[in-house]
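Q: I'm writing a short methods note and want an example of a predicted protein-small molecule complex. Could you take the sequence and the SMILES for nicotinamide-adenine-dinucleotide and return the bound structure as tokens? Please keep the output block clean; save any remarks for afterwards.
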Amino acid sequence: MAPIRVAVLGAGYWGTKLCREYAGIEGSTREASLSMVVDSSEAALEAVRAQVGRAGRVFSRDYQNALRDRSVDVVHVALPSPLHYEVARSALEGGKHVLLEKPMALSSREAYKLASLAEEQGLMLQVGHIFRFNAALRMVRQMLHRGRIGRVYYATLEWTTDDIPSGERDIVFDLAPHPIDVLNYLLDEWPYGVDAVGGSYRRNREVLEEVAFVNLEFPDRVVANVYLSWIQHDGKNRLVRIVGSEGTVICDALNQVVTMYTSRGTSDIPQALFPKLGLNNGDGGWHGKLEDDPPGPNNTIRDMELHFIDAVRGRAP
Ligand SMILES: NC(=O)c1ccc[n+]([C@@H]2O[C@H](COP(=O)([O-])OP(=O)(O)OC[C@H]3O[C@@H](n4cnc5c(N)ncnc54)[C@H](O)[C@@H]3O)[C@@H](O)[C@H]2O)c1
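A: Understood, no commentary inside the block.
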């Protein structure tokens, strides 16, 4: 089967990582080929060309070139978020499948329009909700489905780092899509109530929050708190804690480590659930470090891209 031809639009911090993985997929599976990389900055293009340049691969400064090129099947949009809606809309209208980085759009109305357009056109539209491809979170979902945590009471999620964001980014638009999607994914529910407070301290501009506390209400009295910060000094954290009637599970999604605690001090998680995790009992909890494959730790970007290629080929939802 011919490789699916991908153009990555935006070769900044994230787009460069995406390009490296497509190039890896091209080299190892032939499922997809990275046929074009676009960035309006010559310096960004040069930097990515140095990493993934090869004969025949096009590097362009104008994303219209990718949209016009009939040989491009898929565009993966990693441009600044304010461009997402317009570029994804033009790509879908032009018959391209679209993998669109989060946030999908800057309003739910625009997001809805993109979803309808993809449906009308019979094209795939996937949002870069990368944590759905994280093996540790997949394991937590499996634990929830198997009733290991019992009835879910509440969840707390921490998405923090010490970072000076580039451009006019607001932390709610930039980071909240991840933990909120993680909650939707783990609970199989959507929140019906949301409130939030936030603050801007370093930049001191009200519309550019750097910290936010978001409270969400889900059906069956499940509540969740999402804590977002770009000014917490202890490094990057991507933590999910779920408290239920049978215990508390803590997932360090960055390092792919899952820990389960119960009030009995020991857990009755059968070894069979985590055949390759090397579970050991310590500090009153069971620690499972995902060390092997399967289930992980996995390369989430590569798995997200392969999933999309499968979807385009009609082999995955
Ligand atoms: N899924 C994730 O975990 C994840 C992680 C990081 C970023 N992202 C998303 O990826 C997107 C890009 O983020 P980033 O951190 O790489 O930003 P970035 O600023 O590093 O990169 C954006 C790139 O787009 C280029 N660009 C801007 N306007 C352009 C235009 N009109 N035409 C062509 N190129 C243009 C810039 O030159 C820059 O190189 C954002 O939407 C962000 O939310 C997702």
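A: Remarks, as requested: The pocket of nicotinamide-adenine-dinucleotide is lined by residues 10-15, 38-41, 44, 63, 78-81, 83, 101-102, 128, 130, 166, 174 (CB under 6 Å). The chain has a mean pLDDT of 91.
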